[in-house]
Amino acid sequence: MATIYSPIPNSFRQNLQANKKQIGCWCSLGSPLAAEVLGAAGFDWILIDGEHAPNELQSFLSQLMALKDSRSAPVVRPQWAEPIIIKRLLDLGFFNFLMPFVDNAEQAREIVAATRYPPEGIRGVSLSNRGNRFGYRERYHDEVNDNITVLAQIESKEGLRNVEEIASVEGVDGLFVGPSDLSADLGCFPDTQHPKVQGAIREILRAGAATGTAVGTIAVVEEQARRYLDMGMTCVAVGADLGLLKNVTQELRNKFRSND
Fold it and tell me: How far is CA 248 from CA 79, 138, 146, 252, 256, in A?
């Protein structure tokens, strides 16, 4: 039987630091049932999206609860890397964060600080929340700072210019390529395979290698996902619930579409 994901010690963070491949899937439907199905499939991690999906605190919570008996590590992407949003997601019980649009090291430091209790950070203290099992996890406040994962999403020319400095910030566990936004800022949207984008990805991989920082992305085309893994990426999402549902249902409909 597969081992259930453990947030303390954070096995997902440990695997990233050990450069162990982590294969994930995007969850964009805002549905706890969809999250539960993905979690049962046995991915290493599931991304619950708040930036481009209709999620708020209650739906974040219901999907997190749907993954509680899964081997898949829940990763959340907030609507924005804002301290109050981050604090509330931490209190819900998220330990792994994908932060959108990280453009420089100062921003990265502020993000890390928002995920840590003082003196390492600025997270507000609650003695009883879902993250610490409502006070039943006795050493939570002593242990949690060392068990939070921060992935910094690089998806702009500014982020690309500053990528090695971002990767060097203590508490940044990984760099994550945002391929669509990066292609847009580089002037070649929607071609994420354009030489400019691929060159940028190689720069991000070099920054990760230079600093010992994991690098990941989302790649729903199998050939691309395998190529990125071969290039040295550690954390790759290979599918998304919305895309999977759309593709399979369209394929099924086409099988029975009338020819007239």
Answer: 28, 46, 41, 6, 13
